[in-house]
Amino acid sequence: xxxxxxxxxxxxxxxxxxxxxxxxxxxxxxxxxxxxxxxxxxxxxxxxxxxxxxxxxxxxxxxxxxxxxxxxxxxxxxxxxxxxxxxxxxxxxxxxxxxxxxxxxxxxxxxxxxxxxxxxxxxxxxxxxxxxxxxxxxxxxxxxxxxxxxxxxxxxxxxxxxxxxxxxxxxxxxxxxxxxxxxxxxxxxxxxxxxxxxxxxxxxxxxxxxxxxxxxxxxxxxxxxxxxxxxxxxxxxxxxxxxxxxxxxx
Length: 250
Prior knowledge:
Layout: E1 5-10, H1 15-26, E2 30-36, H2 43-47, E3 52-55, H3 59-71, E4 75-78, H4 85-96, E5 102-105, H5 111-124, E6 129-136, H6 146-158, E7 179-181, E8 184-190, E9 196-204, E10 207-215, H7 222-231, E11 237-240
Parallel strand pairs: 1-2, 1-3, 3-4, 4-5, 5-11, 6-8
Antiparallel strand pairs: 6-9, 7-8, 9-10
Helix pairs in contact: 3-4, 5-6
């Protein structure tokens, strides 16, 4: 009989954390062994013999939590934002010292969102202009969202070598044209009643393409979380983006 994979959740009291606790608790082949709040001691991960840690806290504590997991041989699936290039490079260095340990950092766990980002990046090189609008609930602590930043980065890679998007703006109030991520404008909306939504607008003379994804609840993220939990141990090192587990290029 195959033993269940032992999983712990850090950030279990938040909305994403609570949803992950419930999803893992009812998933075949997984056993929830710990549900930690942000202030609970990380040593509980070792006491419960967790094998995979799902990290869903806040940027201020996420890096410390993940480094603890890696240093103790635990795989980690991370949904917390704030993992910039410098932090990812440092984590990759730590993982090199702990071979066999896998970490997935996913800006978004919704499979539809991951696919929409990939489709937008593929389309971007065929259009003159690209802008991103991301819309989230008003309790979100970061702007732009990690998903929007990831989308802009992939779009910029796809458009490398192309002329900049046309924009004759000479005067603008601060923020009117949004944040600029790798030369891609990103507009953030924070509105009561929303969950997580993103639209990529692509335009050329005479046509426009809109690629939009909407998450209406935390349950939309759970298939991606479970995919990450089940696969992270088989992919040593650092993987940035759930698309790295989807075999989209095969």
